[in-house]
């Protein structure tokens, strides 16, 4: 069998009113990526020749988001909404003059796997098959369309719940909505759809009966209920997030990552962690994090868009913001924040520091309370700290500035000028001792207190008379 040509149509025109959100439903995120993004990513794995997304005129930002993911995607508008069949009609340019299989996906059904989609395409390629639907068997079939089958297992019709007879409602195999359709049949069948049904909409599912009437076959691929989970509310979004995270945690552990308390660790869709990494409880991985082998991420740390080398120690209570790059063997301790900084190998930033817009050489030591003062109210400026440099505690490095290799900065300094290699720089007020000052200060305070107490006592006696 030759490799099929594939076109993809993603339906994303719904209003999503149950989300109660100004953000279109399909742009809500799971693991740091929109539901639309998850669906388009799965489709892209099949290398489709053409892709399209059908949006409503109320949400142009959905089309814009789709084009950020795939600049070549067709953006088609359905207005007013008149059912799934009408939505696919609006995407006619995607499969016009196209010879192959058209996958119809839903942007609010983000977990359909690449393997399942490939099986659907292969089933639709078989001789005399017009379409394949993705079915599942929920505990409560409820409002799902029922899949009626012939004795050989072929699909004969899809009956929407609102139009179903009592005997049809007893069927346990239901329609997920996801469909693979022969492109030539799709072009022929869409104009034959009618809205003679309870909802007065054009059902894409009626294509099954049209195909059977033409002597063509329709097939079914079954998935488990979790794979075809749809998201229509905030509660369902939280369930989808929990499902995704559970799979990601299991996958990480299977690949050699230790999660001490898996339920408290949260990954993003693109998190990459090598084997022999240890992750302590309550760690959050934002988008764009890569972690090399042998690293330990301690409890209550928050990481985003960061590249972490091998054998690094992070946390507890550390924050890596976008652009943090940590070299092998570096230590970033408690209450340290790093942003847009390249940190070399074996650097120690052990506690209570802010390092932003900086380059730090190998083996440098950054003392507690050190701050790179990178922002002047208008622009960000670079701090460069050389290899083997030592920055004393409670130092402020006012950028742009360069601390040379092997240089020392005295504790409590405010450094505003470059420091040469191997030099010591101290920038703070001179210490001055005043003998007896403490005793004089206390005596004066005590006398004032005695005087105030005497005045209060005299005032109280006067008020009693």
Quickly list its features.
465 residues; alpha/beta; UDP N-Acetylglucosamine Acyltransferase, domain 1; Spore Coat Polysaccharide Biosynthesis Protein SpsA, Chain A; seven-stranded mixed beta sheet
Please, could you describe this protein's structure?
With 465 residues, the protein is of the alpha/beta class. It has two domains: 6-222, Spore Coat Polysaccharide Biosynthesis Protein SpsA, Chain A; 242-425, UDP N-Acetylglucosamine Acyltransferase, domain 1. The strands form five sheets. The chain has a 19-stranded parallel beta sheet that branches. A seven-stranded mixed beta sheet has the order 5-4-1-6-10-7-11, sandwiched between helices. Strands 26-29-32 form a three-stranded parallel beta sheet, with no helix packed on it. A hairpin with a 2-residue loop joins strand 2 (29-30) and strand 3.
Q: Helical amount among residues, as a percent range?
A: 10-25%
For the sheet with most strands, the description reads:
19 strands, parallel
Give the name of the CATH architecture of the largest domain.
Alpha-Beta Complex
Radius of gyration, in Å, reads 33 Å
Total domains: 2
Given the structure, what is the number of helices?
A: 9
CATH level 1 name of the largest domain: Alpha Beta
CATH fold naming of the largest domain: Spore Coat Polysaccharide Biosynthesis Protein SpsA, Chain A
Mean pLDDT: 95
Beta content comes to 25-35%
**Number of separate strands:** 33
Which residues sit in consecutive blocks of at least 5 with pLDDT less than 50?
none
User: What is the CA–CA distance across the termini?
Assistant: 113 Å
What's the name of the CATH homologous superfamily of the largest domain?
Spore Coat Polysaccharide Biosynthesis Protein SpsA, Chain A
Shape: elongated
Please identify the structural class as seen in this structure.
alpha/beta
């Amino acid at each position: 069998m030759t490799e099929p040509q594939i076109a993809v149509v993603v339906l994303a025109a719904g209003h999503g009113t149950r989300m109660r959100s100004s953000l279109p439903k399909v742009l809500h995120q799971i693991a740091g990526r929109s539901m639309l993004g998850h669906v388009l990513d799965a489709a892209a794995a099949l290398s489709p020749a053409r892709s399209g997304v059908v949006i409503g005129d109320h949400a142009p930002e959905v089309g814009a988001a789709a084009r950020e993911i795939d600049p070549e995607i067709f953006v088609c508008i359905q207005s007013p909404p008149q059912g799934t069949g009408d939505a696919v009609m609006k995407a006619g340019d995607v499969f016009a003059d196209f010879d192959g299989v058209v996958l119809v996906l839903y942007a609010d059904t983000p977990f359909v796997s690449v393997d399942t989609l490939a099986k659907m395409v292969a089933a639709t390629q078989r001789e005399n098959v017009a379409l394949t639907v993705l079915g599942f068997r929920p505990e409560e079939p409820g409002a799902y369309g029922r899949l009626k089958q012939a004795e050989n297992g072929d699909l004969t019709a899809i009956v929407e719940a609102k139009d179903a007879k009592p005997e049809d409602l007893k069927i346990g195999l239901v329609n997920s909505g996801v469909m693979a359709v022969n492109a030539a049949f799709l072009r022929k069948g869409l104009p034959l759809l009618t809205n003679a049904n309870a909802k007065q909409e054009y059902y894409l599912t009626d294509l099954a009966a049209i195909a059977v009437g033409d002597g063509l076959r329709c097939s079914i691929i079954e998935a488990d209920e979790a794979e075809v989970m749809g998201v229509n509310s905030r509660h369902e979004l939280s369930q989808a997030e929990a499902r995704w995270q559970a799979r990601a945690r299991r996958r990480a552990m299977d690949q050699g990552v230790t999660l001490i308390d898996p339920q408290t660790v949260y990954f993003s869709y693109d998190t990459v962690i090598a084997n022999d990494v240890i992750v302590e409880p309550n760690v959050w991985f934002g988008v764009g994090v890569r972690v090399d082998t042998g690293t330990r991420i301690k409890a209550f740390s928050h990481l985003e868009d960061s590249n972490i080398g091998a054998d690094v120690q992070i946390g507890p209570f550390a924050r890596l913001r976008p652009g943090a790059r940590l070299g092998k063997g570096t230590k970033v301790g408690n209450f340290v924040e790093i942003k847009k900084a390249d940190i070399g190998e074996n650097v120690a930033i052990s506690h209570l520091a802010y390092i932003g817009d900086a380059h730090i050489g190998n083996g440098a030591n950054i003392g507690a309370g050190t701050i790179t003062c990178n922002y002047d109210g208008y622009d960000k400026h670079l701090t460069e700290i050389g290899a083997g440099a030592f920055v004393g505690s409670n130092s402020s490095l006012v950028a742009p500035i360069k601390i040379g290799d092997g240089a020392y900065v005295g504790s409590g300094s405010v450094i505003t000028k470059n420091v040469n290699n191997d030099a010591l720089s101290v920038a703070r007020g001179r210490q001055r001792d005043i003998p007896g000052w403490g005793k004089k200060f206390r005596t004066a305070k005590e006398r004032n207190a005695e005087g105030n107490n005497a005045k209060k006592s005299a005032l109280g006696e006067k008020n009693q008379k």
